[in-house]
């Protein structure tokens, strides 16, 4: 309930009572209207460094009641595609339910089955806590998840551990694997805009990249994501996406024509 800093996707209209930024004018997610995007040749392909993690590296995977979060080592960086340096913090997923899709961003009104977010902070802002509060302090690489014809083996290291973190608060470890394999093959085609965290405290400090190419998972993999985890008081953790927010004059750039 209100006053305890606790929130859920069921009461997303009350977030702003507790977290004032949530009613700001640079909120995420957004609908990307491909007819209104502006091509910018300055947007270079995203190049990632340090992503093939040694299997001896153990990563924490946790169900925090809102999503499943994989902590990432700061050695994973965005080597190009942004003017600032960014270091990885964590990745997490958004999904729907067997009744419908659950991406956060939409493209021309289309909602995809799911969405992966890789969250980074700008180390020149000092600690993560400071970076979270400074414009451009955070960057999120977002890719849409879509049902395709076969299993995506890159996602198996994550999906095969989900049953171990079924309950809220549960944590397990995942051996290091190729994190870059979780993103689309083409990192040169993307949308870029300035927005926010899509969850309280909704800080308006996120430099968003939304890839144009999607990631294909099998129907079985998507449905495992939709039906395994539980949120608060044993309810199914499903539809953990925020509705799209108004642009309030913001421009969405595209790295491609
Ligand atoms: N789409 S998103 O990036 O805004 C996002 C969500 F939509 C999310 F839903 C989440 S999970 C909910 C927020 C949360 C809860 C607990 C903890 C913890 O126990 O450490 C951390 C965060 C979530 F963690 C994130 N990303 C987090 C935002 C909150 C903390 C800032 C740094 C990591 C990015
Ligand atoms: Zn997210």
Low-confidence stretches: none
Order of helices and strands: HEEEEEEEEEEHEHEEEEHE
Q: Strand-residue fraction?
A: 25-35%
Tally of contiguous helical segments: 4
Mean pLDDT: 95
Bound molecules: the ligand NS(=O)(=O)c1c(F)c(F)c(SCCc2ccc(C(=O)O)cc2)c(F)c1NC1CCCCCCC1, zinc ion
Q: Structural class, from secondary structure content?
A: mainly beta
The helicity comes to under 10%
The number of E-state strands comes to: 16
General form: globular
Instruction: Report the major sheet.
Output: 13 strands, mixed
Nearest-angstrom radius of gyration? 17 Å
N/C terminus separation: 46 Å
Would you give an account of this structure?
The protein has 257 residues and is mainly beta. Helix content is 9%, strand content 29%. It has four helices and 16 strands. The strands form two sheets. Strands 2, 3, 4, 5, 6, 7, 10, 11, 12, 13, 14, 15 and 16 form a 13-stranded mixed beta sheet that branches. The chain has a three-stranded mixed beta sheet with strand order 1-8-9, with no helix packed on it. Strand 4 and strand 5 (68-71) form a beta hairpin. The longest helix is centred in the last third of the chain and has 10 residues, at 219-228. The chain is globular. It starts with 14 loop residues before the first helix and ends with a strand. The protein binds ligand ETK and zinc ion. Residues 64, 66-67, 69, 89-90, 92, 117, 119, 132, 140, 197-199 line the site of the ligand NS(=O)(=O)c1c(F)c(F)c(SCCc2ccc(C(=O)O)cc2)c(F)c1NC1CCCCCCC1.
């Amino acid at each position: 309930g209100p006053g305890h800093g606790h929130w859920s996707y069921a009461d997303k209209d009350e977030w702003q009572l507790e977290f004032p930024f949530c009613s700001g004018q640079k909120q995420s997610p957004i609908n990307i209207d491909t007819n209104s995007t502006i091509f910018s040749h300055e947007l270079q392909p995203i190049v990632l460094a340090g992503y093939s993690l040694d299997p001896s590296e153990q990563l924490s995977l946790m169900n925090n009641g809102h999503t499943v979060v994989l902590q990432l080592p700061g050695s994973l960086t965005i080597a190009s595609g942004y003017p600032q340096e960014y270091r990885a913090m964590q990745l997490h997923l958004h999904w729907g339910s067997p009744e419908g899709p659950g991406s956060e961003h939409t493209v021309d009104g289309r909602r995809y089955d799911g969405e992966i977010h890789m969250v980074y902070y700008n180390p020149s802002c000092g600690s993560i806590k400071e970076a979270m509060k400074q414009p451009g302090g955070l960057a999120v690489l977002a890719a849409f998840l879509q049902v395709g014809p076969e299993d995506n083996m890159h996602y198996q290291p994550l999906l095969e551990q989900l049953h171990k973190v079924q309950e809220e608060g549960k944590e397990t470890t995942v051996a290091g694997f190729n994190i870059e394999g979780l993103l689309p093959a083409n990192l040169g085609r993307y949308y870029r805009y300035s927005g926010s965290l899509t969850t309280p405290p909704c800080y308006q400090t996120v430099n968003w990249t939304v890839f144009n190419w999607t990631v294909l998972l099998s129907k079985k993999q998507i449905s495992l994501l939709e039906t395994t985890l539980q949120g608060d008081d044993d309810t199914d953790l499903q539809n953990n996406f925020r509705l799209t927010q108004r642009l309030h004059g913001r421009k969405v750039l595209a790295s491609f024509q």
